[in-house]
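ESCALATION

Customer reports they have been waiting on this structure for their group meeting. Please prioritize. Original submission:
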Amino acid sequence: MASNKLSSSLKSIKREPISVTILNMITDNILSGRLKPGDKLPTEIELAENLGVGRNSVREAIKMLSSFGVIEVKMGAGTFIAKSMPGAILDPLMLSLAFEQGTSKELVDLRFMIEIGAAEMAIDAASDEEIARLAAANEKLKEAADKNIDDPQYLRDVDLNVHYNLFEITGNRFVAKIGKTIYRLFFASIERTVEIDPYRAYRNHKLYIDAIKKRDKDTVGKKIRRALAEWMEYVNK
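Update from on-call: job pushed to the front of the queue and completed.
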């Protein structure tokens, strides 16, 4: 039984952070083949008892694995290993970074670097048609705000699509893939801020998109820094 295989393979945890260790132990069991797609995990209580840790640490690890699509929580049935998942999701570095919640100074600096770099690359590489597509993606955010759509996840996805379009029009596949992967770290904070004020997100996007349209490298970085500074103000409220 999958529950027994997992429980017997995990030793009591002695080091910090506990939630990250639990997360890594579960993913290690998936990568090693001890846990297979569709296998059922032990309950939170069982995991906590077998590992000698608190339920809150187990719950935090399960929540993060669920948000990354590694496991599926089915009400009334239990928690299961997902039947399919992107291989990169099991990258220990990405999973560990995810526990920073996308709001630490290091991650904010990373976002500055990626977005400003992508914008400057887009100015050099993107066609007028591609830049128009970027602007159109942002207009969809305004349309959602105009319709008073009360769905935080939908608004988040529309917002993220603007950034994903920016990464795509750099003309660099690695930038696109790395940018999209790293932006998973900001799901929660972007969802929170766009739910509060989607128009603010739209306006800030438009500022630097207009600079990209003008091929203006001198100001695009300043526009992005201003936008991200406002994002941080909302996140820290």
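Sent to customer with the following note: Residues 135 and 209 are 7 Å apart (CA to CA).
Escalation resolved.
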